[in-house]
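User: Here's a structure from my thesis project, written as structure tokens. My advisor, Dr. K., wants to see whether a designed sequence matches the one we expressed. Can you design one independently, without my sequence as a hint?
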């Protein structure tokens, strides 16, 4: 998980955040906070921490959640030629967390 903010789920309501973080962290993912994604290539993600340090991280799956402005540039650019790609959420049009969860669930069940 890569989060640009200093912690995960800061924009969530407290009870929802607690439940969601518990479910996510049970899986023991690698978590990078205060970090941004610079580039994705062949299953590797180039990261830059708030300190300026850059590093590559291996990724089995990549899900981008990048804010409230529609931005489908990465999908349109063919950024994942070796992978089946599905555009959901704010890369189509800005919406809320409920819609993002619904779309992610729908696409996840398809693949």
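Assistant: Designed independently from the structure alone:
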């Amino acid at each position: 998980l890569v989060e640009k903010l200093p912690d995960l789920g800061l924009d969530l309501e407290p009870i929802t955040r607690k439940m969601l973080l518990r479910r996510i962290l049970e899986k023991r993912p690698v978590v990078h906070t205060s970090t941004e994604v610079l580039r994705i290539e062949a299953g590797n993600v180039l990261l830059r921490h708030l300190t300026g340090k850059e590093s590559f991280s291996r990724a089995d799956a990549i899900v981008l959640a990048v804010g409230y402005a529609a931005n489908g540039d990465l999908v349109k650019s063919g950024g994942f030629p070796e992978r089946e790609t599905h555009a959901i959420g704010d890369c189509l049009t800005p919406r809320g967390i409920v819609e993002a969860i619904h779309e992610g669930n729908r696409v996840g069940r398809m693949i």
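When you compare it with your expressed construct, this may help: The chain has three helices and three strands.
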